[in-house]
């Protein structure tokens, strides 16, 4: 009897591990736990700013038929022909303002050029004391200014002679101005350019 009991105990001890394994198969057969997956937050994509507008290239176009205002004319002539030391000072005294016309502001961009031209006798204001800076330059006015600037003609001594005849005749003789030109009409940029080159050649030939 005792022997049977011992045999039974041995049999149970051998079978218990197998029974446990058969009873709880998931404890042994489950795969190891996978490592925790760290979820990365996706970056928030901000909308791109709108593209800058394209800057179009602005090409300067020479218009030979364009007319010229008196303020532009006097500035171009003075800055081309006179050295900085020969021009009026940037800050004029009150007495020097008498050389300017009454319709020209003291801080006008061409004011110093007008002062220089008046001192040199190249240009003058009108008889009513104005300069009329926005008025167009006529061919007669351009002829007088260039003839005096390049010393191609002097002021006439004949009181009966028209104010521009002396200068116009000098430029016509040198080929700088056409004999049939409309003297009272506005001069164009193309005509002024041709006139300027011609009077330069005339002045150089006199040297």
Tell me the distance between the termini. 157 Å
Biggest sheet statistics: none
- How many DSSP-defined strands? 0
* Proportion of residues in extended strands: under 5%
Rg over C-alpha atoms, rounded to the nearest angstrom: 50 Å
The class by helix and strand makeup works out as: mainly alpha
Strand/helix succession: HHHHHHH
Estimate the global geometry from the Cα principal axes: globular
Average pLDDT, rounded to a whole number, is: 75
In which range does the helix fraction lie? Answer: 40-55%
The total of helices stands at 7
Task: List low-confidence stretches.
Answer: 14-31
Oligomer: single chain
Protein name: Putative S-layer protein
Keywords: Signal
Pfam family, one: SLH
InterPro entries: SLH_dom
Question: Can you tell me about this structure?
Answer:
Helix content is 42%, strand content 0%. Helix 5 (139-149) packs across helix 6. The longest helix has 22 residues, at 2-23. It contains seven helices and no strands. The termini are far apart. Among the domains are: 65-136, no CATH class; 138-207, no CATH class. The model is unreliable at 14-31 (pLDDT under 50). The protein has 207 residues and is mainly α. It is globular, with a radius of gyration of 50 Å. The relative contact order is 0.11.
Outline of the structure:
With 207 residues, the protein is an all-alpha fold.
In terms of topology, how is this protein built?
Layout: H1 2-23, H2 25-29, H3 70-81, H4 111-120, H5 139-149, H6 165-173, H7 189-206
Protein name: Putative S-layer protein
Signal peptide: 1-22
InterPro entries: SLH_dom
């Amino acid at each position: 009897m005792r022997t049977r009991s011992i045999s039974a105990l041995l049999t149970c001890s051998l079978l218990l591990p197998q029974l446990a394994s058969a009873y709880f198969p998931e404890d042994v057969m489950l795969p190891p736990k996978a490592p925790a997956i760290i979820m990365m937050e996706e970056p928030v994509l901000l909308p791109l700013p709108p593209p800058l507008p394209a800057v179009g290239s602005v090409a300067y176009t020479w218009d030979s038929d364009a007319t010229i205002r008196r303020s532009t004319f006097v500035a171009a002539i003075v800055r081309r022909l006179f050295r900085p030391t020969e021009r009026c000072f940037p800050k004029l005294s009150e007495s020097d303002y008498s050389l300017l016309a009454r319709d020209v502001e003291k801080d006008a961009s061409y004011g110093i050029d007008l002062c220089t031209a008046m001192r040199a006798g190249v240009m003058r204001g009108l008889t009513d004391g104005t300069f009329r800076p926005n008025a167009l330059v006529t061919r007669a006015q351009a002829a007088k200014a260039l003839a005096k600037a390049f010393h191609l003609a002097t002021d006439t001594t004949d009181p009966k002679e028209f104010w521009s005849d002396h200068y116009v005749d000098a430029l016509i003789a040198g080929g700088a101005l056409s004999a049939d030109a409309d003297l009272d009409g506005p001069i164009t940029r193309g005509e002024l350019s041709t006139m300027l080159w011609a009077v330069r050649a005339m002045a150089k030939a006199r040297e």
